[in-house]
Design goal:
15 helices, alpha+beta, FAS1 domain
């Protein structure tokens, strides 16, 4: 009987301790929780340099995939120091907001997602394999640190948003040579390298090759520029439209009208 009583007492102490920790976490916002943890010094320094502290102390709610100090230290030497320079503030903002998703996304919700749109505007990819969750190339190592204005999930690597524009990305892919030639002929290169955002439904070289013989050559002639512009604009939609959004929308108005 004494053993049972002692066991109940131990369990009660553990439950009380857990509840105290949860209450303590929930009494702080995201920034103060990260500061109190002691393992996010680089992240908090970056938030200060990017002037994002007040934003993440706001009402939210926000979901933060928070890289540890070790995650930042694993970046190529000099990367953090470079990002913290005043002249690179916008780049730092882009990187940090890529780690933040609007809303309260808890672990049981994260595992049901294939991606989530970040405050950066770009989507982070989420995969689950053998019970382990990855956000882009980072492993989620701790979940559901509850804060007054959201939730923190700890990750073991810094995730980076895409930095190339549409035109550069297309060139690097190597399978859109005909499309690029058409874009140049139509005078649309500047549009596709601009700020956007734009969504391009990009035909591959094989797609162009399947057109009737002579079609591409005819379209590339200067006298057919207006027609070529219309065709290319029919492949472009304003805004960032990810695959899930596209399927849900069913239709979209193109730049061609």
């Amino acid at each position: 009987m004494r053993c049972i009583t002692n066991c109940i007492a131990v369990v009660a102490v553990l439950v009380a301790s857990f509840c105290t920790q949860q209450t303590r976490a929930q009494s702080k916002d995201i920034v103060d929780t990260a500061l109190a943890a002691g393992s996010f010094k680089t992240l908090t320094a970056a938030l200060q340099a990017a002037d994002l502290v007040e934003a993440l102390k706001g009402e939210g709610p926000f979901t933060v995939f928070a890289p540890t100090d070790e995650a930042f230290a694993a970046l190529p030497e000099g990367t953090v120091a470079t990002l913290l320079k005043p002249e690179n503030k916008q780049q730092l903002v882009d990187v940090l907001t890529y780690h933040v998703v609007p809303g309260n996304v808890t672990a049981n919700q994260v595992v049901k997602l294939s991606g989530a749109k970040s405050l950066n505007g770009q989507q982070v990819d989420i995969t689950v394999q053998d019970g382990k969750v990855q956000v882009d190339n980072a492993n989620v190592v701790t979940t559901d640190i509850i804060c007054t204005n959201g939730v923190i999930h700890v990750i073991d690597a810094v995730i980076l948003p895409a930095s190339d524009n549409i035109l550069t990305t297309t060139k690097k892919a190597g399978s859109f040579k005909t499309l690029l030639a058409a874009v140049e002929a139509a005078g649309l290169a500047e549009v596709l390298s601009g700020e956007g955002p734009l969504t391009v439904f990009a035909p591959t070289d094989e797609a162009f090759a399947s057109l009737p013989e002579g079609t591409v050559e005819t379209l590339l002639k200067p006298e057919n520029k207006a027609k070529l512009v219309d065709i290319l604009k029919l492949h472009v939609v304003a805004g960032r439209v990810y695959s899930g959004d596209a399927v849900a929308a069913g239709t979209a108005k193109t730049l061609q009208g």
